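Progress note, sequence design subtask.
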């Protein structure tokens, strides 16, 4: 059966538009060391990439074996801010992809488990903010963030597009699961931290070069992992 035409492309932010995940991973390791708990790099990629703030806190509490104090994270905020301000870059090929979608007249938006402030900071730092102004949705807009489908369904509803005519571009298992649950086709970007096999599954095209996305969308999507 021929897929429905693409009427909306929904991008995740961190790890898809901006290369923030390696920076967060590095700072997370420092935070966990200070707190007195340990996660291996593989665990951090598997458990934290794409997760919500609430899930992050819960997993840290489970590893510590005790509740975190209120506002425990505030002393660490400057570490994240400094790393992002100094080193954050756009994922290679993203600007060309957005230009191509604009040229085709294909609408796009953003749906992220990050906060609105975090999205604004990361997009402003990388010069992408105006591309998504008024079209950025975050977990606080809905009752449940990813891996629940709520955020993607909210984005589609707000943009006035049937979920079956939306595609999602994601780099995390949490995001891929949310898109599938929303009934949307998924393009899993494995050019970052998450391995291709963790993104693969029903209704999902896995690819490793962002510049390939427009031709994948135009061709219905064939796996493009090199």
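Output:
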């Amino acid at each position: 059966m021929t897929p429905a035409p693409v009427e909306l492309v929904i991008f995740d932010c961190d790890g898809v538009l901006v290369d923030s995940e390696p920076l967060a991973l590095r700072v997370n390791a420092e935070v966990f060391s200070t707190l007195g708990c340990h996660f291996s790099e593989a665990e951090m990629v598997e458990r934290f990439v794409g997760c919500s703030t609430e899930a992050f806190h819960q997993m840290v509490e489970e590893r510590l074996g005790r509740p975190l104090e209120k506002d425990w994270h505030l002393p660490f905020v400057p570490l994240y801010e400094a790393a992002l301000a100094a080193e954050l870059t756009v994922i290679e090929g993203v600007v060309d992809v957005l230009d191509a979608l604009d040229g085709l007249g294909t609408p796009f938006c953003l749906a992220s488990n990050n906060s609105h402030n975090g999205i604004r900071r990361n997009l402003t730092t990388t010069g992408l903010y105006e591309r998504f102004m008024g079209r950025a949705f975050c977990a606080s807009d809905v009752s449940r963030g990813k891996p629940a489908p709520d955020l993607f369904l909210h984005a589609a509803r707000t943009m006035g597009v049937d979920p079956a005519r939306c595609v999602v571009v994601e780099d995390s298992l949490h995001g891929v699961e949310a898109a599938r649950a929303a009934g949307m086709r998924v393009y899993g970007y494995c050019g970052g931290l998450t391995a291709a096999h963790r993104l693969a599954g029903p209704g999902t095209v896995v690819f490793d070069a962002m510049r390939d996305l427009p031709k994948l969308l135009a061709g219905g999507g064939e796996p493009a992992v090199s």
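Residues 56 and 68 are 11 Å apart (CA to CA). Work on this subtask will continue into the next period as scheduled.
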